[in-house]
Design brief:
By secondary structure, the protein is α/β, with parallel strands linked by helices. The chain is built from 24 helices and 24 strands. The chain has a six-stranded parallel beta sheet with strand order 3-2-6-7-1-8, sandwiched between helices. Helix 10 links the parallel strand 9 and strand 10.
Length: about 850
């Protein structure tokens, strides 16, 4: 994740690392803290040294009672912006060094001034010190589902924790509660204070929201359980299927029946909650596929649209490849289509893929699905690929059976055919045997038919003696033609096998390249495709750090770094793998599973090079992304130097002139004139102070370092403070805010800055007889503030630029300057999860609309509500 560093979860050198246990909940109030404190009491009763590093009870009586009897490390008090806040005292817990520390709210954001920005980083230090930590987190705070939770609840979650931190925990236990039970707890006042219950039940804690959050939590925990199961099976070499979860594999040939099979398999997977659908296509090295790339692409899209995934593997035996893939994925069911071969092809080639798959399926249920294409592939099997052992056996059997039958048939028609015709018929038999079994069965058929031809049809009959020289020549030519035809057929089969292998390899490379072009998570997705395609248990891309060892040498494991991996137990060095391919530039692709032939290693080399290029592209993209803010900052500084001069010089010159007049020794000033010049100097210095504050805040905002303390606030109080900050120029501003306005969620100090900038801008452009107006209204889960002026209008085109720093747009008689106020105001508003948009004022002018979340839409603030500073 860009911008977030996840500490290593490995063991520290020289010290036993502590264990992390996390209680995961679907929503606030399910009992995570209660479960954490209960576990603390259980361990304390067993004699374990347990302390409470931080526990937030939210004034819940039952939870607060559990704190009794546990040692509590005093919290650290941090003063920020005039207010005091309590945080976990990390140094005190480390100094106390207990066996177990209870630390609530893993995703909490620490107050500025703390050692770490996030509490999970504090927990990492405790773990590294050998302290076992028991913590809590809600599903909405996990980074991977943060956007999904916002779509469900409509509430953005500002506090998140990387999934890798929670996944690295030795134990993750879900604290579950049905939505109805949680709502009853809230109605009884066991979660929030009575005045907050109605708003919470009608907003965040609706039954639909809680049901969706509960399902997210269950699925997340189920995925982690699945990871542990796969790891256990790999470590213990367990190959048989464990039906812990329905996983349906559908085999695709690229034929027209594919869509029927996919939909059938999707219905089977949908019968159980959480069932997985995996579509797989086996690329056979013998070339007997006839798969259409366009058809496979369409079937892939269909499988993915139904929530499944598409995979491609290489296998000489289709049924074995299917079963190996299904067992590797711990599949419970396998869906195949009924054979499209005709009865004649089935008779000649024996058992089909479906029969072989059923025989070797073991614990996997096999479904043979009928479809409209059954039996439509007619004719003899075409020898389009390599001559397998089975086909050679069929060839020998055909020669042994067909040669006597043909001899009997020709002998019964003796007298109606001459020797030439009989020889040609025997030659046809040799060609058919060559087509079925290849060279060696054809040679056997050629020798056998030549002997039969000599014994039964060349005078003298029923002996191997030949009287006429012409018959000797005919027999020799017959044998030569038969051998030549057999050799040609076998050569064609070998060339076809090579072409089929090249075609299979090109399809594999095309599939892998397509995965990268579709942006499937870069290196890890590419390695997953490699592992599946070559039937390996794991695939890993290693890189030797620059200067660690010579590029051609094999160093110890410490000189290799894992760039990406797929599958359990990835090898840490090439010596630990079954296959390793050097890529150059310090990269090496290693696979664990089984050795590969030379031609497949060539393909693997191309894939390895592609993976290395993908890594370099990712690094270049990250470098470009890191350089972009620097370039933008440079442009910002250039614009600042070009534009800030006037706005700095003007108030400085005015203040200096006023002070200079007052200090003039030869001037006699009346008291009224002295007060006027002093007021001019004071106003100029206030203008200069506001400009400097805007510059500093804009810089912190762009650097992501501007601290936020959002909480429920009364917008009328904030507007009143903003007007007071403006002083006399704001005396005529009208404030029309209803008395019963709901609370908004914002940082009061930052919102005041926003309003001061917007009101200053409105005062500057409003006519003297039409002062600005401030109104407020509640719209759904939003609170809107409108700053209305009757000054010049702003065109629709210029509205796109009025928030750009260092620019003035769209209003006549605009003095030059930096125009930081609007840029800073929008940035601060968006940082508070609000929006700032311009609109036309009826009758002419500009209205600036500040929209903020209503307090009722945020049931449990991430930090205590911040009172407005006096």
């Amino acid at each position: 994740m860009p911008g977030i560093h996840v500490p290593s979860m490995g063991h520290s050198y020289g010290m036993r690392r502590g264990q992390l246990r996390v209680y995961l909940g679907a929503a606030p109030g399910v009992g995570k803290t209660y479960a954490m404190l209960g576990e603390g009491h259980r361990r304390l009763a067993r004699g374990t040294d347990v302390v409470v590093g931080f526990a937030e009870t939210y004034d819940r009586k039952l939870t607060a009672q559990l704190l009794g009897g546990l040692e509590i490390v005093p919290r650290r008090v941090i003063t920020y912006r005039g207010s005091a806040f309590e945080e976990m005292d990390l140094d005190a817990v480390l100094a106390r060094k207990p066996e177990v520390a209870l630390v609530d709210e893993l995703a909490h954001t620490n107050i500025p001034g703390s050692r770490n920005a996030k509490r999970w980083q504090d927990v990492e230090e405790l773990l590294a010190a050998g302290i076992t930590v028991i913590s809590t987190v809600n599903i909405q705070h996990l980074e991977s589902v943060n956007d999904v939770v916002e779509k469900i609840t409509g509430v953005p979650q500002r506090e998140t924790v990387p999934d890798a931190v929670v996944r690295a925990a030795e134990q993750v236990e879900m604290v579950d509660m049905t939505p109805e039970a949680l709502r009853r707890r809230m109605a009884h006042g066991n979660v929030y204070a009575a005045e907050k219950v109605d708003a919470a039940l009608s907003n965040y804690f609706r039954v639909g929201n809680l049901t969706a959050l509960r399902e997210l939590a269950l699925l997340w925990v189920a995925d982690r359980v699945e990871e542990g199961l796969l790891r256990y099976r790999a470590e213990h070499g367990i190959g048989q299927t464990w039906e812990a979860r329905e996983r349906v594999v559908v085999a695709l040939t690229g034929g027209p029946e594919g869509e029927t099979l996919i939909r059938r398999a999707a219905r089977i997977a949908a019968r159980t909650v959480g069932g997985d659908l995996l579509a797989v296509h086996v690329v056979r090295s013998d070339g007997l596929t006839g798969a259409s790339p366009a058809a496979l692409a369409a079937q892939r899209r269909l499988a993915e649209s139904l929530g499944g995934s598409y995979h491609q593997v290489i296998g000489d035996d289709v049924s074995e490849a299917l079963l190996a893939f299904a067992r590797a994925e711990n599949a419970t069911q396998l869906v195949l289509g009924a054979s499209r071969r005709s009865w004649l092809a089935a008779l000649l080639t024996g058992a089909g893929i479906g029969s072989k798959t059923i025989q070797g399926s073991g614990d996997i249920d096999v479904h043979i699905v009928t479809h409209g294409e059954m039996g439509r592939r007619g004719g003899l099997p075409r020898p389009a690929g390599s001559v397998s052992r089975r086909r050679r056996i069929y060839g020998f059997a055909l020669a042994a059976v067909a040669a006597p039958l043909v001899t009997i048939a020709l002998a019964s028609a003796r007298g109606g055919l001459n020797l030439l015709s009989e020889a040609l018929i025997f030659l046809v038999l040799v060609v058919v045997v060559a087509l079925v079994g290849g060279l060696y069965p054809a040679l056997f058929a050629a020798v056998a038919t030549s002997l039969l031809l000599n014994f039964y049809f060349i005078p003298p009959l029923y002996t191997f003696t030949i009287q006429q020289p012409n018959n000797v020549l005919a027999l020799v030519v017959f044998v030569a033609v038969a051998v030549a035809v057999s050799a040609v057929v076998d050569l064609a089969a070998r060339r076809t096998r090579q072409a089929a292998r090249a075609n299979a390899q090109s399809e594999t490379l095309a599939t892998l390249a397509g995965s990268v072009l579709r942006g499937e998570s870069g290196v890890d997705a590419l390695l997953e495709r490699v592992r599946e395609s070559f039937g390996m248990t794991s695939a890993t891309l290693l890189q030797r750090p620059a200067g660690a060892a010579d590029a051609g040498a094999r160093g110890p494991a410490s000189t290799w770094a894992i760039v990406g991996s797929s599958g359990p137990a990835p090898p840490a060095r090439p010596e630990d793998a079954d296959v390793d391919v050097d890529v150059g530039d310090g990269f090496c692709l290693v696979l664990r599973g089984h050795p590969l032939p030379a031609d497949e290693r060539r393909v693997l080399g191309a894939v390895a090079a592609q993976a290395a290029v993908t890594v370099e592209q990712r690094r270049l993209a990250e470098a470009a992304a890191a350089a972009e803010p620097i370039a933008e900052a440079g442009q910002m500084r250039a614009a600042l130097l070009a534009a800030v001069g006037h706005d700095l010089r003007t108030p400085l010159a005015a203040a200096k002139a006023a002070v200079g007049d007052l200090r003039a020794s030869d001037a006699t000033w009346k008291p009224e004139r002295v007060r006027e010049r002093a007021a001019d100097a004071d106003a100029s210095l206030d203008q200069l102070t506001l400009l400097v504050d805007n510059l500093l805040d804009l810089n912190r905002l762009q650097a992501g370092e501007l601290p936020l303390r959002p909480g429920p606030i009364d917008v009328a109080d904030v507007v009143a403070h903003a007007l007071a900050s403006l002083g006399p120029p704001a005396a005529d501003i009208r404030m029309l805010i209803p008395a019963a306005m709901p609370l908004a969620v914002a940082d009061p100090a930052l919102l005041e800055r926003v309003l001061v900038n917007l009101l200053s801008n409105a005062i500057r452009y409003s006519p003297a007889d039409s002062p600005p107006t401030v109104t407020a209204s509640a719209l759904g889960d939003q609170v809107e503030l409108r700053i209305i002026d009757q000054g010049p209008c702003v065109s629709q085109t210029d509205r796109d630029h009025i928030f750009d720093p260092f620019q003035r747009q769209g209003r006549e008689s605009t003095p030059p300057g930096t125009s930081l106020g609007l840029a800073l105001s929008r940035g601060l508003t968006e940082a508070m999860q609000g929006t700032l948009t311009p609109d036309d004022t009826p009758g002419g002018g500009l209205t600036m609309i500040v929209s903020l979340p209503a307090a009722g839409s945020v049931p449990e603030p991430a930090v205590p509500a911040t009172p407005f500073p006096a």
